[in-house]
Automatic annotation (TrEMBL):
<dbReference type="GO" id="GO:0006383">
    <property type="term" value="P:transcription by RNA polymerase III"/>
</dbReference>
<dbReference type="GO" id="GO:0003899">
    <property type="term" value="F:DNA-directed RNA polymerase activity"/>
</dbReference>
<feature type="compositionally biased region" description="Polar residues">
    <location>
        <begin position="1"/>
        <end position="13"/>
    </location>
</feature>
<comment type="similarity">
    <text>Belongs to the archaeal Rpo11/eukaryotic RPB11/RPC19 RNA polymerase subunit family.</text>
</comment>
<dbReference type="InterPro" id="IPR008193">
    <property type="entry name" value="RNA_pol_Rpb11_13-16kDa_CS"/>
</dbReference>
<dbReference type="GO" id="GO:0005736">
    <property type="term" value="C:RNA polymerase I complex"/>
</dbReference>
<feature type="compositionally biased region" description="Acidic residues">
    <location>
        <begin position="34"/>
        <end position="60"/>
    </location>
</feature>
<dbReference type="InterPro" id="IPR022905">
    <property type="entry name" value="Rpo11-like"/>
</dbReference>
<keyword id="KW-0240">DNA-directed RNA polymerase</keyword>
<dbReference type="GO" id="GO:0046983">
    <property type="term" value="F:protein dimerization activity"/>
</dbReference>
<keyword id="KW-0804">Transcription</keyword>
<dbReference type="GO" id="GO:0005666">
    <property type="term" value="C:RNA polymerase III complex"/>
</dbReference>
<dbReference type="GO" id="GO:0006362">
    <property type="term" value="P:transcription elongation by RNA polymerase I"/>
</dbReference>
<dbReference type="Pfam" id="PF13656">
    <property type="entry name" value="RNA_pol_L_2"/>
</dbReference>
<feature type="domain" description="DNA-directed RNA polymerase RBP11-like dimerisation">
    <location>
        <begin position="76"/>
        <end position="148"/>
    </location>
</feature>
<protein>
    <submittedName>
        <fullName>DNA-directed RNA polymerase</fullName>
    </submittedName>
</protein>
<keyword id="KW-0539">Nucleus</keyword>
């Protein structure tokens, strides 16, 4: 059977309302009517002003890490709230560098929940809690080093740009 070559092809404008115009973003990406875009400077000013309520807010924060049931001193599972793959993978990597750690893994139980679980098993002589604490300190130290190197490179770049 030979295709009908006399069929007229429609342009997007002729096709009707079925096609979406790409001249403007979808409604979900548009700013709601009446709301102004806050600049980063405004947000920083609000943050720096601070209130007397800051101490109260810190006390009201929920505990973000908890020891899950069924744990022993050398094998424990921890649940982190509001964390994901970014912290999970870095923490797993750093903890596995510890020679006292036999096993470490993390999992995100469900993508719609903001939870991350970390499982740590250690050799005799150290506990899973100590391994977690050391891992968190090591990540913090690593971040401090990266920040320092970045700021040094930024200053060097700015000095080179002025010259």
């Amino acid at each position: 059977m030979v295709p009908n070559s006399t069929t007229k092809k429609q342009t997007p404008q002729e096709a009707g309302d079925d096609d979406i115009s790409m001249s403007r973003p979808p409604a979900s990406h548009q700013q709601p009517i009446g709301e102004e875009d806050a600049s980063m400077a405004d947000v920083e000013e609000e943050y720096e002003e601070g209130d007397e309520d800051d101490e109260e807010v810190a006390e009201e924060e929920t505990q973000r890490v908890r020891l899950l049931p069924g744990s022993s001193p050398n094998a424990a599972s921890f649940e982190f709230l509001d964390e994901g793959h970014t912290l999970g993978n870095a923490l797993r990597y750093i903890i596995m560098k510890n020679p006292d750690v036999e096993f470490c893994a993390y999992a995100i139980p469900h993508p719609s929940e903001a939870k991350m679980n970390v499982r740590i098993q250690t050799y005799e002589g150290t506990t899973a809690i100590q391994a977690l604490e050391k891992g968190l300190r090591d990540i913090q130290d690593l971040c401090d080093v990266v920040t320092d190197k970045f700021l040094d490179a930024k200053l060097q770049f700015l000095e080179d740009a002025k010259a």
